Amino acid sequence: MDDKEYFWLTRKKEPKTKPKSRPLPKATQKYLEAEEEFTHALDNLEIKYEKKFQFKSTKHWRFDFHLI
Q: Does the pTM of the predicted model rise above 0.70?
């Protein structure tokens, strides 16, 4: 069924198959090294922390550490 025939039968536009949001970019090597260095520093200073999963997608990577 083509687009026009679908529209005339249902009075609706055909649903789009392309997703609206883009996936997060891959973490760069600089980000991974900085995260590892930061966790190492927190462990050396015996500061308790927890990593949180980031639910909202953002354009840039960020640290999600919560100090306890």
A: no
